[in-house]
Amino acid sequence: MPASPTVLLTGASGVIGTALLAELSHCHVIALTHRTPCPGADEQLRGDLTADRFGLDQHTYTALAARVDMVVHGAAVTSFSSGPAATHLLNEAGTRKILDFAADAGAVLYHLSTAFVARHELTRANLGRDAGDAAARPEDYLDSKRAGETLVRASGLPATIIRPSVVIGHSVTGEISAFQGMHGIIHALLRGLLPLVPVPGPSKVDFVPCDVVARAIAALIAEGRSDGDVWVTAGHSAPTAERVLELTEKVAGDLGIAMQIPRMVGPDMVDRLIRPVFISGLHPRTRRRFDDMLAMTALFADAAAFPSSLGEIPATVAALTPAQVESAYAATVTHLARAKKLAPAPSAGPRQEVLAG
Predict the structure, then answer these.
(1) What angle do CA 19, 230, 297 make, to 5 degrees?
(2) Which of 176, 221, 241, 258 has a CA-to-CA distance to 62 between 20 and 30 Å?
(3) Could you give all domains of the chain from N- to C-terminal order, each with its CATH number?
(4) What are 266-292's pLDDT values in tens digits?
(5) Measuring CA to CA, which residue among 355, 351, 294 is closest to residue 326?
(6) Contact 174, 334 (CB under 8 A)
(7) Nearest 5°: CA angle at 100, between 149 and 217?
(8) The model scores a pTM over 0.85
(9) Please, are residues 224 and 308 in contact by the beta-carbon 8 Å criterion?
């Protein structure tokens, strides 16, 4: 591997891509962008992942392939409500185009998937449960990511599949380039919009800070890893749903936000009693918000802990301790509360240390 490899990065403006750019100072990064510019990359090239040769002319494509040593494929439809057609178009068909390019370039591929492919059977659709008014359909997203992984494995190319769990904000600042699904639930908790949470209290809620994910990917690139699956998760250090609610209430209290811990109930009680008796008569928007949350939280209810490769592959990125996971979550809640004007901005003070890695 060259001392300063050239990396083609897709999804550079996304949550992981934005954090990763700060960790790739030892690389020459070319960001393949579609709509959103990426000022942090060394170069930008506008292209379309779903088109042959990314929509580039033959000369530009060939010249790009001759330069690239590694590809980090992070571009994806991550919304649970985009529908199967749009989701598969980028997450599956786009992966085919990336594999074609990696083969042409003779490049190592780092393919970003999700740890939740291992919980595909827990979606409400696969459990035969009513989705109600939910716009969120996790099964579409997980189907597309599973298909992408299958393509990568079948390609025979040197490739590492990276499976992060839920990605939250920076471990110290809580900052993130875009708020995502879990942020929506935290926001609703802080505003008192969730009288109940449809997850049993002991269920593990796995999340990792965006900077930890970025450091893990950068370390894989630095050591030239070119095969296998890497789980970037909290693993057994993930807190329970009950503990997450306690932490949220504590941070809210520290910020001067009055919050009550909602009741936690299992999916069976939701389907037998709560949805037909209490939810069915609510305003459609409120009902849809509840059913969306039900669809997302189904992936956590009574699930076994994820494996974690942190501390092993690569060994330079330490496994997260329960205290570090909780600290990172508190930072995310704090940043979200301030960004949404639910709490005042912080006064100037000394910056804390980043999680050891």
Answers:
(1) 75
(2) 221
(3) 6-339 (3.40.50.720)
(4) 888 888 888 777 777 777 787 888 888
(5) 355
(6) yes
(7) 50
(8) yes
(9) no
